[in-house]
Amino acid sequence: MKVFLLAIVNTNSKPCNVLEKVSDVSSFSFFQRSSIDDFLTFFATTVAERTSPGQRQGVDENNYTAFAYNRTDGLAAVVITDTEYPNRVALSLAGKLLDEFSALNPKASELTKGDGRFQPQLNKYLVDYQSPRQADVIMNVQMELDETKVVLHKTIESVLERGERLDNLVEKSNQLSDQSKMFYKTAKKTNSCCSIM
């Protein structure tokens, strides 16, 4: 997963003005970098211009996806990634870029050119968001939950691999009351239509 470009665009002017941008084209050959950077900038402005005010969208082109968030004030943020990058993370980054740029530039929608004060923050986000799992708290929590679920499944499978069945253990248990055994059987019967992942 890779982030190639972050841009803040003024969509009030036609053609759109890129106020601030940063790109990472280091994965391409030296001779292609300039052309690819130009393509990414063109792609960003085109998608920003064609995203309705107040809307967010992702647009795929070849191996790239441009995620754009165009606010109603005419200020848009565009995040261009590879196609594997998580949508939610890219769109939340676009929203964060707009909020921080607006806080730094109160009349941002009237600008025709950025003053470079937001450039260090863009550079930081470009580096930080190369790994969406580390940059996004919600994605990190979800992955930890998925890992826990796998461990739980492995634990249950290991019990079953030894030839023990949970049904047999419940029947043999002297520690469970008759009421608990009845509850287990009823719950199993009720849930028999569904499978646990």
Explain what you see.
By secondary structure, the protein is α+β, with helices and mostly antiparallel strands. The protein has one domain: Longin domain (Beta-Lactamase), CATH 3.30.450.50. The protein has seven helices and five strands, in the order E-E-H-E-E-E-H-H-H-H-H-H. It has a five-stranded antiparallel sheet, sandwiched between helices. A hairpin with a 2-residue loop joins strand 3 and strand 4. It is elongated and about 75 Å long. The two termini are 27 Å apart.
CATH topology: Beta-Lactamase
The total tally of domains equals 1
Helicity range of the residues? 40-55%
Supply Rg.
26 Å
User: Any guess at the CATH architecture?
Assistant: 2-Layer Sandwich
Principal-axes shape call: elongated
The profile of the biggest β sheet is: 5 strands, antiparallel
Low-confidence stretches: none
Tally of extended strands? 5
CATH homologous superfamily heading: Longin domain
Q: Figure out the total of helices.
A: 7
**Class by alpha and beta content:** alpha+beta
Beta-strand content: 15-25%
Query: What is the ordering of alpha helices and beta strands?
Result: EEHEEEHHHHHH
The end-to-end span amounts to 27 Å
The level-1 CATH class:
Alpha Beta
What is the arithmetic mean of pLDDT? 79
Strand order of the largest sheet: 2-1-5-4-3
